[in-house]
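Contributing: when you submit paired examples, paste them exactly as shown. First protein:
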Amino acid sequence: MTVNEICERIEASVICGDASKNFDGVYVGDLLSRAMSHVEGGNIWVTIMSNVNVVAVATLTEPAAVVLAEEVDLQEDALKSAMENGITLLSSPLSAYEICVRLHNAVSEGE
């Protein structure tokens, strides 16, 4: 399933990056040191953090996309860094919990 395919389900808009990538798992969390050791390449990472350090962690872990929950405002330096590093960022008005429920349902229906 691609990132694009779930955007409507989680009411997400693409801030930047390539949303045609496939994803193969989900990680939700805001503690960056924990995310650094648990986000796997190809995952969707759901967070409310919106600073340049999120992009740094995403650059290291290579998720398919980072979803900013609760429509948090992305800091300008983070957007610039994400664009420079090819990180796909999405924004959703939903809570992290609701995003995860909808992702689970989408993946379950797709099987």
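Second protein:
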Amino acid sequence: MDVLVLVGRILFAPLFLASGLGHLARTSMMAGYTASRGVPKAIAPALVLGSGLLIIAGSLMVLFGVWGDLGAVFLTAFLVPTALIMHGPWGVADAQARMMEQTQLLKDLALAGASLMILALFAFAGSDLGLTLTGPLFDLG
């Protein structure tokens, strides 16, 4: 099971690493989009930078098994608000754009669900999970 969970972590993390690096590399562009979705323009750049750092940290924690449960919490804390604020299809007039936002909303919610399962896996299996650098931060067992 150790190797299977490790392979799953390796496959899961790159999406968030790439996205987080994109947040850092294209902050002003992403802040403009963030503001267009109703987030105050004055705080949009800080939110883009902060969320980029949050998902980079979370994905690395899950990938390397350094308090992977906390890393999964970080990812969930990014995904749920992002799904609801940035990708809500409600109020989108164009049918094609609405369908794309609905797909992004559902993708983010599905990834949040997967992150919660990773939280449970780390927290319940504890040090028995294997192939991690630390044990979990939380004990849900």
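If you have annotations for the second protein, write them as plain sentences, like these:
Helices lie at 2-25, 27-36, 44-64, 68-86, 95-125.
Residues 2-127 form one domain.
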